[in-house]
Amino acid sequence: MKKIKSVIKKVRREFSNRALTYYKMHYESSKVVSNTILYESRDGKAFSDSPYAFFAYFANHPEQDDYQHTWVYDGNVDLTLAKKLLPHHKLKSVKFVKRNTKEYGRALLTSEYLINNSTFQPWFIKKENQVYVNTWHGTPLKKMGFDIEDNPKGSQNVLRNFLMADYLISPNNHMTDVFLKSYKLEGLYEGTILEGGLPRNDWISNPDITMATQLRDSGIILDSTKKVLLYTPTYRGVLQNEAADDIEKLVSDVKYLVNHVGDEYNILIKVHPFVYGKAVLNENLKGRLVSDLFDVNKLFEVTDILVTDYSSVLFDYLITKKRLIYYIWDSEDYTDDRGMYFSPENLPGDVATTIVELVDAIRVQHQVTIDESIDRLIRYDDGSVTKRYVQRIFHGEKSGIIQEFKPRSQKEHLIFYPGGFLTNGITTSFINLVHQLPEEKYDITVLFGGRMSEQKFLNYNQISSKVRPLFVFGRTAMGFREQIKFQLLKKFPNKFINKFFYPKTGFRLDANRILANTHFDTLVDFSGYSLYGSRYLLEHSGGNKLIYLHNDIVSDANRVIDGKRPLLKNVKAAIANYSRFDTLVNVSDAVLLENQKRLADEKLNSKMRVAPNVLDYNRVIELANQSSDEWVDKSKVSFVTVGRLSPEKNQKNLLVAWRDFVSKYPNSQLIIVGYGPLEAELRSFVKENELSDSVIFTGLLMNPYPTILAANYFVFPSMWEGQGLALLEALVLHKRVIASNIPTNREILGQNRYGLVAKGTDAICILEAMSRMMETNREFEAFDFVEYNRKAIQAAEDIF
Fold first, then answer.
1. How far is the C-alpha of 447 from the C-alpha of 514, rounded, in Å?
2. pLDDT in tens, 207-232
3. Domain 207-374 classification at class level
């Protein structure tokens, strides 16, 4: 009973957000209402940008307005002022809903058209008969998406939103390339990229002549006898919730400008929305800081000089042909931190790196010259951009001006969940597989869960150029009942619970949420050790579902570490769902036979296939010769073993054997490569038995191959293995190997054909095998790793 109560308590925590709660509980039952449009700009912080341009078009063309319009606003917005800036009185039906309320959840579920210039929240799932238009918010100067180094997770919700959108609005071919390449939409995205300009730029060609009055009404001090200098600094940093700001620097610069050019110019400031909340609290900016509710492009009508740094508004401003100055006082740091697509020095306008240089640039009158390479970025912006998009999206009328791109390729679309992606055999096997699958045939997406640790990031970098990452994040889409079922499934992993409490609907909704309603031909749980990845793959609509069995799965479930069986519950939950997969992929014939015997289920046995681990032998050879080894003592006979320091790898028996071996062969050295839960115990054994002079622990090595290559022998003492990848890699490097007597080692070594198989797995057998190898110095046949790999890749492709 206590466990049941803990399940209910855990689920209740998921229902604190009213909008999310309503959204979850009514997702299946809510009906989309025809001719309804929801607008959301910058998380509801303003009625602005291209969503506003769409709204304004309908307001100015009432003959085309058969729609009910809904604007989303944030709770901190001055709604009275925001409404004054919105021509809502021209339309028949306009309502306003506060973000993260029940009404917001309802509007998000029932609106037919959804127009956003940023992203909807991680719990949003576009319904089948909704039309999602993502306008984004400008032409990027600074790097975006996966072009930002060291931060693949930073784009997780942006990519998810892009994949769900029916239409992505692109202002130019540069932004189209950003969509396709920087966000890796090329090959997978099922919607349409419409490249035809930026709707918000219509205001530049059709300016609002009342803007000066609106600014004064909002509290801005404007002297009509002076010109206007508008300063629009962007934010520093990479992530929205980690945006850096320097308000003191901003205040200091504004004071300097007022003192030196204030007699000629009104100095106005329009900061990035990410830092507006802090800037508005500073009294020194009062009367100059333009409200976040004003769209920056509308301010261009009253602006004579724009001063900016790395903001994308510079491209919009080029349409005006007015003066432009880049004030890049931190260019070196900013470029190193974020990276740039264009250098300000190569763009139209003047450049200043200090406040003194900025004042000098303001005083010098320069004509802005736009060359062809920059002109292409604004070539669509003729004042009729929004009209063409409305005709295309709402009326299906194609334009000769808008270019349309359908990026979905004809390749086979695979998605893998690779597990925790820490450095281990499963991760190495997966990396090898990705490198060997032909790029011309497969489009590969990888689903990652958990935080992006340094180790996981290093492993991801090995495949980043070949795959597209998606991430598990945000709150689940499952309703209360489905979450109860899921928690029961995890706490009581057995066939009965699985049969009667399997959260099919909840898993389907979460799959749609995380996979962004995207279709895949084959979905692979490559980890196979828990329900974590399977829950996002099993109920995906269509596709071939596979799960890998890397070992004798029942033995793994019952593995004892420190008196506990840490894998038992997770592995049992995975096993309980095997029947829902189309194929159970074993990594060797020996593992297949063992799993068929242990699982003893005729239906499951009929689903089992074999696909051996794939080698990336060119990479192994290259890395082995890339650097010199720093561990092997050339004056000694050296043995190396590589593997996680855990019970199944059997390093304890190896050390017991080594204690006797080194007394017989004192000029010997054992190098243990790896890390794991038994490291402290193994180190203690070495110290207690005075073996420190002959045993070296290297810890985790991202490149262990120079050490394997430099050693005389490779020892592989495992108690059990699915298929010893480290053993195969040692054979690639033509090492003489000694392996324990387990089925998979016998299978690889061909009964002593390619290496020496011990008589057992205990210390005595390992000692005897090592001694025999030393005394006979036996040579073995060369392992044909090229042919092995050809067959392994073919086996995998046959299953995919």
1. 9
2. 888 899 999 999 999 999 999 999 99
3. alpha beta
Q: Where in the chain is the domain with CATH 3.40.50.2000?
A: 413-473+519-610, 617-791
Average pLDDT for 314-341? 88
Residue type, 470: L
Q: Are strands 94-98 and 111-116 parallel, antiparallel or unpaired?
A: unpaired
Cβ neighbours, 10 Å, residue 779: 7
Q: Name which residue leads in pLDDT, 462 or 91.
A: 462
* Residue whose C-alpha is closest to residue 416's, from 388, 440, 443, 389: 443
Superfamily of domain 617-791: Glycogen Phosphorylase B; (3.40.50.2000)
Task: Tell me how many helices (H) and strands (E) the chain has.
Answer: 34, 26
Question: Which pLDDT score, from 0 to 100, does residue 4 have?
Answer: 59
d(C-alpha 112, C-alpha 126), whole Å: 10
Match domain 413-473+519-610 to its CATH number in 3.40.309.10, 1.10.287.110, 1.10.3210.10, 3.40.50.2000.
3.40.50.2000
CATH topology assigned to domain 31-202: Rossmann fold (3.40.50)
pLDDT tens digits, one per residue of 7-49: 566 666 666 678 999 999 999 999 999 999 999 999 999 999 9
Q: Which string of b and e fits 585-614 if b means at least 16 CB within 10 Å? A: bbbbebbbebbbeebeeeebeebbebbbbb
For residue 171, what are its two tokens? Answer: 């202002």
pTM for the structure as a whole: 0.91
Least confident of 363-372, 692-701, 729-738: 363-372
Q: Where are the beta strands (DSSP E) in 20-150?
A: 33-40, 68-73, 94-98, 111-116, 131-134
pLDDT in tens, 184-214: 999 999 999 999 999 999 999 888 888 999 9
CA distance 428 to 419: 12
Can you state the angle between helices 763-776 and 651-664, rounded to 10 degrees? Answer: 50
Strands 668-673, 637-642: pairing kind: parallel
Distance between CA atoms of 328 and 335, rounded to whole angstroms?
A: 10
Which residue ranges does the chain devote to CATH 3.40.50.12580? Answer: 207-374
